[in-house]
């Protein structure tokens, strides 16, 4: 069964993009990419206009900038991505990217949501200084060229080069992500967001973090100026708002999916949190399938 997510995708005809896919329906397909958790690997030279925004996509997106700059979208915020910078947009979040200069050259990979990339599952985008941005770009471009040569191409050698280059970037990214207590709390809040129907309790959160409820409460106050119970509610409300925006279901269905047995209770809580009832949220995305 196809996974349904929501996507806004606008690209100028002046841009050029080349990619190799891990699935047989891709124009340039290479057997073995999918086994390594890679759905697509590509390079882009973007001009004039480019806008991508996704909600709940079941894959991670890695962007590595070589020239020019763009902006990475996280919810309603934007952050510039310039030469030598690398960012990963985690799966099942609200994010995207947009052209921010007349010309933007970048390498990118779409990574499957599989165990190999579990360390990418974070509540926010992961940022790093690329170890060798140009090498990553050239290795992906080389792989695309060799795949296009068919039987004459040295695809396995080019694939290994790209994998080694990618691993160098991922190793550095992993080293920079050794979790602090605050990051562990962020990852747990991510779990609440992704599984809002679970009966989350403060003792459960404290147990998963390996700390007392008192320590958890202090950490939550320091990091978020809220109690653990308030954070549980906030994550459920964020998920509810996102689902209503996507047209996932009506208010009753979203309330149930967020763990509420009574729609009236859900609606009161939603109105308290956002200042308007859930029935007033209008869908803003067109569904996409991947």
UniProtKB/TrEMBL annotation:
One MF annotation (Gene Ontology) recorded for this entry: sequence-specific DNA binding
Keyword field contains Cell division: no
InterPro entries in UniProt: AraC_XylS_family_regulators (IPR050204), Homeodomain-like_sf (IPR009057), HTH-like (IPR037923), HTH_AraC (IPR018060)
Keywords: DNA-binding, Transcription, Transcription regulation
SMART domains listed in its UniProt record: HTH_ARAC
Any Pfam family: HTH_18
HTH araC/xylS-type domain sequence ranges: 183-284
Entry protein name: AraC-type DNA-binding protein
Organism for this UniProt entry: Andreprevotia lacus DSM 23236
């Amino acid at each position: 069964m196809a996974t349904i997510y929501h996507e806004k995708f606008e690209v100028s005809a002046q841009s050029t993009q080349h990619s190799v896919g891990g699935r047989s329906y891709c124009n340039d397909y290479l057997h073995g990419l999918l086994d390594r958790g890679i759905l697509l690997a590509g390079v882009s030279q973007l001009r004039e206009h480019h806008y991508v925004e996704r909600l709940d996509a079941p894959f991670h997106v890695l962007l590595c900038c070589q020239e020019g700059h763009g902006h990475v979208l996280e919810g309603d915020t934007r952050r510039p991505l310039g030469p030598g910078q690398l960012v990963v947009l985690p799966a099942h979040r609200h994010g995207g990217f947009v052209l921010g200069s007349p010309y933007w050259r970048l390498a990118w990979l779409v990574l499957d949501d599989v165990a190999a990339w579990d360390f990418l599952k974070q509540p926010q985008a992961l940022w790093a200084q690329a170890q060798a941005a140009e090498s990553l770009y050239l290795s992906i471009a080389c792989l695309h060229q060799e795949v296009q040569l068919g039987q004459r191409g040295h695809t396995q050698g080019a694939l290994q080069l790209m994998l080694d280059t990618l691993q160098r970037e991922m190793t550095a990214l992993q080293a920079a992500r050794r979790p602090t207590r605050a990051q562990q709390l962020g990852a747990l809040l991510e779990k609440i967001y992704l599984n809002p129907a679970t009966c989350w309790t403060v003792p459960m959160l404290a147990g998963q973090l390996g700390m007392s409820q008192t320590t958890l409460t202090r950490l939550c106050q320091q990091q978020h100026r809220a109690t653990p119970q308030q954070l549980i509610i906030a994550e459920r409300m964020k998920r509810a708002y996102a689902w209503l925006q996507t047209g996932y279901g009506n208010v009753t269905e979203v309330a149930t999916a967020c763990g509420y047995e009574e729609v009236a209770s859900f609606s009161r809580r939603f109105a308290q949190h956002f200042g308007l009832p859930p029935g007033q949220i209008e869908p803003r995305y067109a569904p996409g399938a991947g």
